[in-house]
Amino acid sequence: xxxxxxxxxxxxxVFAPLKSIIAAFSNYSGMTARRSSVQSLYELCAKTFRTSQxxxxxxxxxQALSSLMDTIGPGDVGLKDESTEDxxxxxxxxxxxxxRTARWSQPITYLDLYECDKFTMCIFCFPTSAVxxxxxxxGMCVFSKILYxxxxxxxxxxxxxxxxxxxxxxxxxxxxxxxxxxDKVMTAPCExxxxxxxxxxxxxxxxxxxxxxxxxxxxxxYLESAGRPCTYYHDYPFSSFYGADIPDKEGEYAWLAExxxxxxxxxxxxxxxxAIQP
Length: 278
Known about the structure:
The protein is an alpha+beta fold. It has helices at 6-33, 37-48, 60-70; strands at 108-115, 120-126, 131-135, 141-148, 150-158, 164-167, 173-187, 193-195, 203-208, 212-219, 232-237, 253-259, 266-268. It comes from Kalanchoe fedtschenkoi (Lavender scallops). This is cysteine dioxygenase.
């Protein structure tokens, strides 16, 4: 008797979509079973930052966190590399006139990944020429990883013991001496940068050379009531004011004056990467 494959073929036709669904579910289960990079980052942060006390110097803990962040790319956080797209508005490139970014230029987008009183995980997405002006991180340790694009970073550390001058004029200006730590363009892929409360460029500013994104871990986060406000500054060349003797080159120093918080053109975005499970 000739085998009748009709019924078997019909059964295969019925079960084929089901098999595809099962296969897809199996793949999805495998993906979800594997810990995502951001989940691993969260877990390491939770282990490292058990209190609100910051890391004050390089250590095995900071190295472990930096090494993990070094492996994270835009795809791991739900982003695509947009560094080749020219999205500039009428923004001004440069560090001396930070407040002149035109209002119709593209905004910086802020993505909140996770926040608690011990640490914050977030992403800043910059359009070309966007600027976050010179600001500090009092009593904080900050890890920054450029996910894509190029970013100009200028950073200072305060000179210790503190050297302060009051400049007489129409408005008395109080300036404090700081030493330049970094003044360069950083392009992804590059190593994670780490700043500490009193070293490695705690006072810094960012200017986007191309569209770029930066993954940040702040530990602990800003909290004014705990003595961690965000203060903004204007930097003056060392030669602008006299009365200080320095052993190094004048170009490596600047006077920083506190300014009012600028109106940064920024909007809240939606994080679309893997969910974090506390």
